[in-house]
Amino acid sequence: MLNIQNLHAEIDGKAILKGLTLAINPGEIHAIMGPNGAGKSTLGYVLAGRPGYEVTEGSVTFDGQDLLALAPHERAALGLFLGFQYPVEIPGVSNVQFLREALNAQRKIRGEEPLSGGDFLKRAKAQADALDLSMDMLKRSVNVGFSGGEKKRNEMVQMGIIDPRLAILDETDSGLDIDALRTVGRGINSIMRKPDKAVLLITHYQRLLDYVKPDFVHVLAGGRIVRTGGSELALELEREGYGAIAA
After folding, report:
1. Which of 40, 55, 112, 217 is a Cys-bridge partner for 233, taking CB atoms 3.0 to 4.6 Å apart?
2. What is the mean pLDDT of residues 59-85?
3. Which residues pair with 200 in a beta bridge?
4. Is 159 buried (19+), middle (13-18) or exposed (0-12) by CB count in 10 A?
5. Nearest CA to 173 among 211, 120, 199?
6. What are phi and psi of 81, to 5 degrees?
7. H helical segments located in 66-147
């Protein structure tokens, strides 16, 4: 599904990724862990096409297509979803309006018919119910006045409605209490743990991985993956710290 080869990337002339190689197949959940400044968020931004991040070497293909040659909205329509560490607020734009426009824009690029208002609301309600988010909240401006946990649950609802093939989730566990973490973990599993989908979890800590069991855990340090293992590697990291593992 996703094939990254020798990826180098920089921002403002500063090299961040320095030869990262990673392959993700359908049905797999991968966790990327590492210290601050290792390049974890940069990897997510580069894959999603965020402006300001320049790829200087290497290649990325998604379902055989050159991902780096596509605009951000084309990557999204292809099935890539980026979840933010700090979901943004959009005053004056309701969740329902935002998500219907986003979904139908993607469907148009793929040559599919747009969802009617009624069909969209059924889809939105099903996802909101699954994530313990009321439809009243979906009618509010995007993330405005939401708590940290509500923003993350709202983002999971967005992911469920968009229904991507690859979800890149950047520190989704940041700022969540134990109940919100459990709800978000349940959402990731129900939406993305399927044979034709895949997940790249970017996280500092083991705790999210108690709820979303990864098939592979990678340690990112100095802009490249320095170690790969199973879910037990996350426990080792929690016990020993990044310095001992990445050395």
Report:
1. 217
2. 92
3. 30, 168
4. buried
5. 211
6. -125, 130
7. 72-78, 95-109, 117-130, 135-138
> Global pTM?
0.88
Q: Which residues contact 227 (CB under 8 A, 6 or more apart)?
A: 218, 219, 233, 245, 246
What pLDDT is recorded for position 10?
94
Distant-in-sequence, close-in-space partners of 158: CB < 8 Å, separation ≥ 6: 95, 99, 102
Query: How far from the centroid of its chain's Cα atoms is residue 185's Cα?
Result: 13
d(CA 204, CA 167): 17
Q: Which of 27, 15, 9, 39 is nearest to 225 (CA)?
A: 39
Query: What confidence tier does 241 reach under pLDDT thresholds 50, 70, 90?
Result: confident
CA distances from 156 to 53, 67, 185 (A): 26, 24, 9
70: amino acid identity, one letter: L
Confidence of residue 171 (pLDDT cuts 50, 70, 90): confident
Distance from C-alpha of 242 to C-alpha of 64, rounded to nearest angstrom: 34
Contact 95, 151 (CB under 8 A): no
Distance in angstroms (rounded) separating the CA atoms of residues 156 and 42:
21
* Residues 6 or more apart whose Cβ sits within 8 Å of residue 247: none
- In the chain, the percentage of residues whose pLDDT exceeds 70 is 98
